[in-house]
Amino acid sequence: MSSKLLSAYIYGLFIFLMVCALFTAGPFTLIYWIFGGDPRWSFQVVVRFFWRLFLKMSPVIGKITIHKPENLNTLKPAIYVSSHQSSIDFVLLGSIIKDFATISNHPISDLPIFMKIPRLVGVYYMEKLNPNAAITVFNRLTKALEKGTNVFIFPEGTRNYSETLLQFQKGAFRLSVDNHVPIIPVIIDGTGRIVSKGSNVTKTSQATDIDVTFLDPITPQEDETVRSLMKRVKEAMQIEVTKNFS
Fold first, then answer.
1. How far are the Cα atoms of 63, 143, 198, 216 from residue 242, in angstroms, in the given order?
2. What pTM was computed for the model?
């Protein structure tokens, strides 16, 4: 099977599973909401199940190994700050981090039927042409943290499959300092060998293993600056990224 045909199959599989998620999550969320539950949480539970199913069924994704799982879903709320190799990373983290909110610059799909799914799941769009978008989104993430919801962010702001992390954006670290919430650095390795940046065509037809490492939490010190915290986190992450490329 050619890479384009394989990629079309994988995309079709993802769309099919998202349709299933949409029609399954709707009734479940409605019942949960009627009994006083958080509709975002219940919708996310269902979508997370189908994301996990996609990762298992995708022919180019092999074994997913989580390293240092004791740092996953133990502190709440926490801000997970992750390296970012490919478009798979979003679904990958969303499938294993419980009760989260996050940011995305790209829609989950161009199909109108999916336009409401991200917001219901807890994904907030950062509109590039809107100068007030960052303030609006980070206010929402602050409210999420206040409610005990985790946040995950890719601080490089774009996909980067190299042994050197790009310059970090300050948003996640500002959230951490302002709300005194610990940061859990995350290193993803393997997804960059599956899909290239700016392309939806797979680079391989073979099942590729993925490693996800959750480093020890880093808590902002009293009166620590955003720049200082960002430097500490990036240094810890860079050490782990360098190991993966050595």
1. 22, 35, 23, 17
2. 0.91
